[in-house]
Write a structure and sequence with these properties.
The chain is an alpha/beta fold and 318 residues long. It has helices at 12-35, 46-58, 70-84, 106-112, 133-146, 163-171, 191-196, 205-208, 229-233, 243-261, 263-267, 278-292, 300-316; strands spanning 38-45, 66-68, 88-99, 117-124, 130-131, 152-156, 175-181, 199-203, 212-214. The protein has a seven-stranded mixed β-sheet with strand order 5-4-3-1-6-7-8, sandwiched between helices. A two-stranded antiparallel sheet has the order 2-9.
Length: 318
Amino acid sequence: MNDVQPSGPIDLTAIATGIERANELLTRVLAEVATTPSTHAIFVDAGYVYAAAGRLVAGTEDRRAFELDAEGLIEAFIDRARTIFPDSRLLRVYWYDGARRRIHTTEQQRIAELPDVKVRLGNLNANNQQKGVDSLIRSDLESLARHRAISDAALIGGDEDLVSAVEAAQGYGARVHLWGIEAACGRNQAEPLLWEVDSQRTFDLEFCKPYVARRTGMCPQEPYAAADPGAAAGGGDGPAPSRDEVRFVGAQVAARWLGERGRETLADLLPGHPYLPGPVDQELLVEAEGLLGLSLRAHADLRRALRDGFWEHLQAQY
């Protein structure tokens, strides 16, 4: 056997130059990957949230018997995700619900108007059962993971049918984190779903209580644990204040906080606009209710006005 001999001397300089260029290219690629922020999205099965939170706080799954502060709860989810994924940016919150003929209800319209929130509707049959929601979640999860639009997905739901959505997203490299609401008894999330996800997290009664309030005039057939005495009683005897009055109270609270806590402390909230950290939002609500002499837990529109007034005053100072 004859060995093939090189036709000329090996150019070590050229080889070294090639290796150096390859290393430079690899370094640039790694640097770009390192500086590219991770992205997460939150996928909320509203039917699960209403049923689980209603059962836990109000003792019933009947939506007609209680009001859910969807805006406040979404903000709490966003705030919690910011803590869990500190080096990641939020793509958006997907809110999946059912509606007759897929026509938005007034409540769903308000949710759809929230920043960073996308409402996706399945159908609602004659028995008030959602149809098509699971397939919407799977479609969005798979598409976003396939296009590398997200690195992490927080999925809030409990149906076993969501297993295929989790598998699809994981198949494209996304990590799926299952969030749930504490069950009043037993479990409210399917075991196969719990087995499939990358991590699990449960929100307890204390987390959920501020966002659920019994509707006045309802006669519950099941035990009811009110969010607070004011919420159970409707919060005061007089008529509800106007949005402008509540907005003014929000500004009052902001002015008081500026004086007590200093500009630097509250300036830290500005990058999170329009969202307030959960503890801050609850403190604002409690202080405003004390000034108004009225619970706002059953008045989602007034809570929005309160936050608007708070932010307007805060932003005017900077």
